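Example with several molecule types.
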Amino acid sequence: MDIVVCIKRVPAFGAQVPLTDDGSAVDTRHLGFTIGPHEECAVEEAVRLVSAHGGRVTVLTVGPEEAGEQLRYALAMGAHRGVLVDTGTTDLDPEATATAVLAGLADEPEPDLLLFGDASADAGHGQVAIRVALARGLPVVGGITGMDADAGGGLRATRETPAGTEVFRVPMPAAVTVKEGLNLPRYPTLPGRLKAKKAELRTVSCAPEPGGLRTVGLRRPADDRAGAVPLGRGAAAAPAVVDILAELGKV
Amino acid sequence: MTEIPERADVVVIGAGIVGNAVCHHLAELGWRDIVLIEKGPLPDPGGSTGHASNFIFPVDHSREITALTTDSMRQYEKLGTLITSGGVEVARQPQRVEELKRRMASARAWGVDAELITPRRVAELVPFVDPDILLAGFWTPSVAVVDPLRAGALMREQAIADGALTVSANTAVTGIRTDRGRVQAVCTDAGDVETPVVVVACGVWSPRIARLAGAEIPLTPAVHQMMDVGPIPELEATGTAIAYPIVRDMDALMYERQSGADLEIGSYAHRPILHEPDDIPSLESAALSPTQLPFTSEDFDPQLEQALELFGSILDRPDAGVRHAINGLLSMTPDGAPVLGPCPEVAGLWSAAAVWIKEGPSVGRMLAEWLTHGDCEFDMHGADIARFYPHQRTREHVRARANEGFNKTYGIVHPREQWESSRGRKLSPFHTREREADAVFFEVGGWERPHWYESNRALLDEFGDRVTHRQHEWDARWWSPIVEAEHLAMRERAAMIDLTAFAQFDVRGPGALDYLQRMVVAQLDRPVGRLCYTPVLTPGGGFRSDLTVVRLGEDRFRVITGGADGARDRSWFESHLPADGSASLVDVTSAVCTLGLWGPRARDVLAATTEDDVSGEALPFGTARWIDVAGIPVLALRVSYVGDLGWELHAPFEHGQALWDAIAEAGRPHGIVPAGIGVYGTTGRLEKGYRLMGAELDGEYDPVEAGLALPKVKAADFVGKDAYLAAREGTPAATLCTLTLGTLTVDDHTGTDGIARYPQGGEPIVTTAGERIVDRKGRGSVVTSAGPAPSLGAHLLMAYLPPEFAVEGTSLQVEYMAERYPVTVARAGRTPLFDPEDTRMKA
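Resulting structure tokens for the full complex:
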């Protein structure tokens, strides 16, 4: 089974997202970069499927040259090849991103499975997988939290909903978006990291036309840091605890 | 949240291990109304205390650091926050084996149990290492892991229970108010606190907080990379945080330690990655904590291979992954030492910065004592914030030296090793001439000083076998036999020595005499033109400094002190100036250059350049006078640190080169040579038994022990007088002695490899049975200075010895590079071995 996993370089931040002074973007000067949790699960799933059924895992990313760091992380987890579609930036709209992904796939052999995270960890539009699947005429199923190859050469995929579990049978080739919870992604091993460090990445240059979606600006929600308020120490705190529980309607 | 008080006796900023320890020890010493302000949450505010690896190797080549570390370990243990794991430093390279032998000497010197072990034994202690790539190990059974967050919380709680401390967490300091150079209040987002004393214990943020008061704390945040790899079943099976000794892979500049089911790997091998305190992310925007920055894996990759080599048996596994990896921030200083004590720029502002986990609790105790009594148990001159000259507090210098120093963290650093960066900052007016003479420059306090002159190489032929040639590369490193040849040329003819690095202060005013009398031990109320060499004491009676004071007029004195300690001395003298303004101090270092001229021909040389009378009658030993030298006004001081006839010639800086040329020209018929600091600071002074601040002299030894007590005690009061009087009454616990390697007649210091070895200083002196020597105050006997005495044909060592050993003729041993060599006590006390009657100097 040949699988291509699309991943995105996104900033890693804490409780508060730092913004640039003009509010047009996330201020990434002091931030590290990572791939989102959905995509980590996608890489993990691909590595597991291939080790069970044979084949190879290719990871593909759209971004600046530095996004090679994220490809190597996925390689250290067990992926076999990396493709970097160098657009100089990750700040593309979903149409342009899909165009770039397609450019990266153009010279690749047709994979059995195209895996995506359900939505990117930063922009979160959730459009790229669908646009790519449409352009390549593939069936697509989203929000998957369980999957395995079935006996008929297709894929059995499940999705959790509040009402119950939905089960899909998907013929391959197909595109699938997955969600965190699908599996527990492994940590890269030391030998894996060393191998990944030496791996050759295939680089494709691409300057896609912008699509229709524009970011006007970013705004942080009003600062409402309530912080912890000690209610007292030992038994003296009991009445205050009772009051709070009553307020919450728990007693 | 507790209301922040309006007033406090002391405000401590920062609740890491250092701030908590300062509060605790201040409370122990009776302080009340202590306020601790912390910007972050408790118990882990987000600084380096929260992410440090928390292990402690007690042995360091520095006595000061080892003392701080072992005292801290005692405190952690008392708080129940220490687990002894043992630790082993391993060598992959032959030169590292030598370094481990040197560490053995330091372990013996400071009384820490340690042992050199074989690779096989290393693998017995830590069964996961590959012994085949190792040559040796240095095993320290007392190595431990501590919990500084818990220790800090316990210290805080004790101080609160004593009613001494108010803690205000989640409180940001917005300003420090000063008035006429003195701290008035700390301003915070929760209100202002009026206080006369502020302690900055803010780790990597310390420079930013100190700047609020207009002071510089010279450190830079630097990255130390660490990662956790796991789970590793063999470690998980121990069911405990740490069951195996910690390994320091010294040649890879890395460490590996068990942390529960994981192996934690840390590195000091990557490129130096420096940050600015203002650029550290806020608590809210940091992914982990402000001091745990995103891991940059490309910097760590080479270390992974090294870790796999040593720990392949447990790391090369498909199911052991990198679970956590950070670029942790720690504080780097220009010289690697902590930055402690009162800031010279602002009265009442104290620094408690650049402290490792291993030193935190003890730094708290030392600072609390220092704040309470004016000095502390351990001599802190290597960590004193006042040691930095202004240029050494600049960002550029701090960054340059931190950059260069980072990889020395686990490096092999020769005791004489010179820095390469930020050089050429201060040049004496003789510099052009010195370069023409192919001087080899060593740095002191930013000054470039010739250590020897390659142009003197021909002297090696002249003095033949009276000069020793060191065969071992380590002994010969940063040294030249030319030093000894220059020395002999000086003793036979004359030498000129650049001493411009002296720090010099002019003290003037109607209160000048009274003020200086209070500062020093010697009687300064003497005729104009007299000069005095005198100890300067701490309140506890140890050495603060030793220096020369010249009475230039009724109300005018010049203080001349060494370049290494000039900044500290200036800060000490300035902080004691009388409040009524009756005396003032001006630093004239930059206005004065100094040329030393010594040797039996020195008077002939000087006389040829001046019409003034420079005879012994007109200018006797111990006096100073203005004379004209080739048309240059020169203050001639009849004094000597090398024990020969001659002068320190002090001249206006801009006349320096003309002065040099005049002396060189007049000296040519007499065979004068330029000589370096190797002669002045080592060979000449050791032959004469002269003591050096920072080597023989420090806060832990008093003038009686150093042999520098004066015959009479002046009536005037002075700092440290009570302790000085008490020391004179009692018998000293130790006496400073000069020892010869072998004996004066038998040269016996050949190592097992057949090469004669030369101890460098810092080695333990042991008995003929190999027992460590400790005086009744618990201080070990250690070589304070070592060097050749070419006029005596011996290699001399200085060391403090307890009375039973401080007897001339006693046979002892010095332990150098894990071998022992016989030594003999040649002199107990200050009488010089060379020219004991001082006839040459007083000729």
